[in-house]
Specification:
The chain has helices at residues 12-17, 39-56, 120-134, 184-187, and strands at 24-27, 30-33, 62-65, 69-71, 85-86, 90-93, 103-105, 110-114, 138-143, 148-153, 164-167, 171-173, 181-183. The strands form 4 sheets. The protein has a 6-stranded mixed beta sheet with strand order 3-6-8-9-10-11, sandwiched between helices. Strands 5-4-7 form a 3-stranded mixed beta sheet, with no helix packed on it. A two-stranded antiparallel sheet has the order 1-2. It has a domain at 42-67 and 88-187: tt1808, chain A, CATH 3.90.1570.10. The protein is 23% helix and 27% strand. By secondary structure, it is an alpha+beta fold. A hairpin with a 2-residue loop joins strand 1 (24-27) and strand 2.
Length: 190
């Protein structure tokens, strides 16, 4: 079994043929290798996941930290031929019919991406556009260097509006849950 090369167009079927330890994402058929996350990245991920998981105990929605694949179907693509396969840092799914053993097939309700120097452009532009197009209701971009979070919510027009910006001294009201607030002091307390 050969490792993927970055010079061709790939689909979800290709992704399924690769060894499980190959960490990649596919955006519009283009391959992006994933670097190992930093310690600070993992501390932020762990604290966000802890707060979300504690809230979701006993509720229908489920939260998943990376690695957890999300396959987005755009423009009525055949499911096996999707050219968009992501591994968000945190994924929340409320429609359990979208779940299988590998991850989520279709748009999750919420996605959180924690930026690193190598992923900033991809997360802010390419993934942003795909999450919006697929109908992800809430998309967070966490910037560890600035200790800031940009929150995008899907509007009635099916587009993300202007982001709400939060600093490390604030709490975020999660829009998909009326009674959940995330404390950023603890998220950025590394």
């Amino acid at each position: 079994m050969s490792l993927p090369k970055e010079d061709r167009i790939y689909t979800y079927n290709d992704y399924l043929s690769w060894p499980e330890d190959v960490r990649v994402e596919i955006i519009d058929g283009r391959l992006y290798m994933q670097a190992a996350p930093s310690r600070i990245h993992q501390e932020i991920l762990s604290e966000l996941h802890r707060q979300l998981a504690n809230y979701l105990v006993g509720k229908a929605c489920k939260v998943y930290p990376a690695p957890f694949e999300v396959v987005l179907y755009l423009d009525e693509e055949d499911k096996d031929d999707s050219r968009n396969v992501f591994e968000p840092d945190i994924t929340i799914v409320c429609d359990t019919s979208k779940l299988d053993d590998a991850g989520c097939k279709g748009a999750p309700n919420m996605v959180i991406e924690i930026l690193s120097p190598s992923t900033g452009r991809k997360d802010k532009l390419e993934k942003f556009n795909k999450y919006e197009q697929a109908g992800v209701q809430e998309y967070w971009i966490v910037e560890p260097q600035e200790k800031m979070v940009s929150v995008f919510t899907l509007e009635e027009s099916q587009n993300y509006g202007r982001p709400s910006l939060y600093s490390d001294e604030e709490e975020i009201q999660v829009s998909i849950f009326d009674d959940l607030r995330i404390d950023l002091k603890t998220v950025f307390s590394y």
